[in-house]
Amino acid sequence: MEKSNIELLTEFAKSTNRSIEAKEILYPSTGVRTFPQYKRLIYIPNNSENTSFFIWFSDPYEKGGIPTDFCGAFIKLPSEFKSKINIRNKNILDKIKVFSKAQNSIGNPLFDSKVVISGELDSSIKSLLSKSRIQYQLLEALKIKELINISINEYKIDFIPELLDEPYLAIINPQSWNLDANYIEKVFSNIEKIRSVIY
User: Fold this and answer.
1) What's the CA gap between 30 and 16, in Å, rounded?
2) Cα-Cα-Cα-Cα dihedral of 197, 91, 126, 174, to 10°?
3) Closest C-alpha to 111, from 146, 72, 137, 82
4) pLDDT, tens digit, for every residue of 148-160?
5) Is 46 exposed, middle or buried (0-12, 13-18, 19+ CB in 10 A)?
6) What is the CA 114 to chain-centroid distance, rounded?
7) pTM for this predicted structure
8) 175 and 151 in contact (C-beta within 8 Å)?
């Protein structure tokens, strides 16, 4: 019998001496829906100090009936960082300016030429992103895999006590789950490097 995602992640946590928290919430059945639907919340702290967390989230009704699945590593930010920001690699459509919408910029031509920053770029976030060491680590994180984004405060992750009502930064796949151990360790490593620059 094929193992569930929770079983696979539990094995990963055990093999790396990490703890895991997993919750499945069954949605009430309706006359329209004949098969069970679950909201799934899973997270693994990177270490006993809880300096970062790898989160897997799945909810078929999170956004008005639109399924939401993401996974990624999260770190707590200092309290002044409240804006919601998304940073992704700039693609060919961005580069040829098919969509002529004005884009946020940091003021470093090298960094600005490689990423698209969406959201409200307030002074505290802009100050953080203007640091060359942060820019380097963010660009390294965006190289990990296709679809990787840097997310600041975009998702509701109040099921983790340490991140409840706290600002955060994440290296995230906003479209799907990844259960590969090497991938998880790589993302953990990169988020810890980002954290070391911030703190």
Assistant:
1) 41
2) -70
3) 137
4) 999 999 998 989 9
5) buried
6) 19
7) 0.90
8) no
AA letter at 107 = G
- Whether the per-residue pLDDT at 31 is higher than 70: the answer is no
Measured CA to CA, the distance from residue 29 to residue 12 in angstroms comes to 32
The encoded tokens of residue 78 equal: 């200092």
